[in-house]
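Obj: model holo form, ligand = S-adenosylmethionine.
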Amino acid sequence: MNVLMTKKKTPSGREPAKRLKTARGRTTSSSRWLQRQLNDPYVQKAQIDGYRSRAAYKIKDIDDKLGFFKPGVTVVDLGAAPGGWAQVAMERRVKKVVGIDLLPIDPLPGVVFLEMDFTDDEALVALEREIEDKKVDVVMSDIAPNAMGHKQTDHLRIMALVELAYDFAINNLKPDGIFIAKVFQGGAQQDIVATARKDFKTVRHIKPPSSRQDSSETFFIASGFRKV
Ligand SMILES: C[S@@+](CC[C@H](N)C(=O)[O-])C[C@H]1O[C@@H](n2cnc3c(N)ncnc32)[C@H](O)[C@@H]1O
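Output (holo structure tokens):
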């Protein structure tokens, strides 16, 4: 059983970091994860602000910079659970969000959530059925397969999903639309970057302030879709 260890204030007067100790006094990888969660200011902020995930702040940071959540736009949210990105989109008055995830998601007004595997053909059919007038302004993907802990393997596994998300985007975006996808840094991005430079006016990577500095996560963003 995990026991939350609290300490006296540090000599500087700051609250000490919260520490977890297992019953046997050993730190396991799961308790390290929990310890990081307990000490993450964005986790605490999300609880206070009523967001379902700390991830909400990443899309907030990116939208603060690029301003794609506009009233009236339609958004597809790939890997949407538990719904933090969709919350931010609706808060910023987009018209509709269609989200998909392997996991069930609590309902959110204005949002259609599909509990499906995005890699299945039926998922593409179901998503396209939900998209009014067949076109969307924003395709955003926070899809992440369970991390294996091996940097290059994790990079390749997420890139396979990002490529599928990219194909979905170019088949469904309106002219001038934007594609945003979480990636982990690594060598397999060159192909998608080269393709995106032809399909979109601007291609960039953004590491939002709310993304953990010790994570290789970054966001691939292609904007100004050149619809042919
Ligand atoms: C980091 S979470 C998304 C957090 C979300 N953006 C938010 O703000 O709450 C990544 C999600 O990708 C989902 N996922 C992974 N592989 C998937 C797949 N093949 N199809 C659908 N969802 C998938 C996971 O179930 C997980 O919920």
